[in-house]
Task: inverse folding
């Protein structure tokens, strides 16, 4: 467990300086106290004092060394995590005369007569909710990702954006054979990408690749998937969340506030009417829960930054992620300074019946381009 200063909003370099200065103060204070204590003593007493002083100074030096080592470790982890999670613009936005859009040099675009530059401090994490109760060990049974949310962490603008992507979004998926070898691609619903993996890790990678393609090649370096029991545990560990249903369904009454804990959470977010808009209605409920959960988690993290590790350990048996310790340190430090406006955005588009009468979600490309520029680019000041 890292001390709270290690993942506070204070820059890592400042933490090293503070730790060093504090340690040196300890050494100076010890030496001063020893010198004063030695005045007026006999030679025998001074010899005994010198032995005790040496032991004390050794202890202090060891503590100083440990403090410096810990501070340096946090500094390095923070830097490594930032390097792994941020990077240059990899999106290839479409040139369309209808949107008055033009791609210029790397990371710079012109849209509706204004210049924008890609925000290279952004970190993107794909969060997936899986349509099964528990993560399996051993023989892997493929499932689907019912929930797909892109978390965009923007430290430059101190902002967290959550962008929900419909499970029914029509997109290009990689197809693998039973041995995990790629055999081609197919256009299908996003949720199916997870089902083609031969492990949770591979399923996460396939879904992340599909979402990256939806976003024109956006770099998504981190992912995390969580099974239903993990979501319920996550809600429980933050003390439950309160929501207000907009419709009558599955035992819930429209307009009647309810606190979700335990099995109620799963009942609320998983129910779906099998209509064209059934998944869109379910997404609205899932966004309700996610928004309340983010508020609770951010408040807990801001009051105690180290709690993010406790939260993760409580659900990790049902979680698959490539976020390592260095990434976690960097993300925890950034989370302290982020603002969340309470709104979960959705990729714009509409639902319609596709082949075999399955509902598919078709993206409105013009509105989507505007949304991408708003989230991932900053205006260039003239």
Result:
């Amino acid at each position: 467990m890292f001390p709270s200063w290690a993942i506070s909003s204070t820059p890592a370099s400042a933490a090293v300086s503070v730790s060093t200065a504090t340690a040196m103060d300890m050494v100076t204070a010890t030496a001063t106290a020893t010198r004063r204590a030695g005045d007026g003593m006999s030679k025998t007493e001074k010899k005994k004092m010198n032995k005790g002083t040496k032991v004390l100074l050794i202890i202090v030096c060891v503590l100083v060394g440990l403090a410096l080592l810990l501070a340096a470790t946090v500094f390095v982890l923070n830097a490594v995590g930032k390097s792994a999670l941020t990077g240059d613009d990899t999106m290839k936005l479409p040139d369309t005369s209808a949107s008055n859009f033009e791609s210029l040099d790397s990371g710079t675009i012109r849209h509706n007569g204004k210049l924008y530059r890609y925000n290279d401090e952004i970190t993107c994490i794909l969060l997936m909710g899986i349509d099964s109760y528990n993560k399996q060990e051993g023989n892997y049974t493929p499932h689907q990702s019912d929930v797909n949310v892109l978390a965009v962490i923007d430290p430059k603008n101190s902002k967290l954006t959550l962008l929900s992507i419909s499970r029914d979004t029509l997109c290009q998926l990689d197809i693998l054979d039973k041995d995990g070898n790629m055999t081609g691609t197919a256009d299908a619903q996003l949720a199916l990408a997870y089902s083609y993996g031969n492990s949770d890790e591979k399923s996460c990678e396939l879904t992340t690749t599909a979402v990256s393609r939806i976003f024109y090649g956006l770099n998504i370096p981190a992912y995390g998937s969580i099974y239903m029991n993990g979501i319920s545990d996550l809600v429980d560990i933050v003390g439950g969340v309160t929501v207000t249903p907009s419709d009558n369904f599955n035992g819930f009454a429209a307009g009647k506030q309810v606190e979700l804990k335990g099995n109620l959470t799963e009942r609320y977010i998983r129910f779906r009417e099998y209509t064209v808009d059934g998944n869109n209605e379910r997404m609205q409920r899932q966004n309700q829960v996610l928004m309340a959960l983010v508020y609770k988690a951010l408040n807990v993290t801001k009051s105690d930054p180290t709690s993010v590790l406790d939260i993760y350990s409580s659900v990790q048996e049902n979680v698959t992620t490539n976020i390592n310790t260095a990434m976690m340190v960097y993300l925890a430090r950034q989370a302290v300074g982020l603002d969340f406006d309470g709104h979960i955005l959705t990729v714009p588009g509409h639902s319609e019946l596709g082949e075999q009468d399955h509902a598919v979600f078709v993206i409105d490309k013009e509105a989507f381009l505007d949304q991408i520029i708003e989230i991932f680019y900053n205006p260039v000041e003239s």
Notes: The mean pLDDT is 77. The two ends are 46 Å apart (CA to CA). Residues 4-85 form one domain. The chain has two domains: 4-85, 97-379.
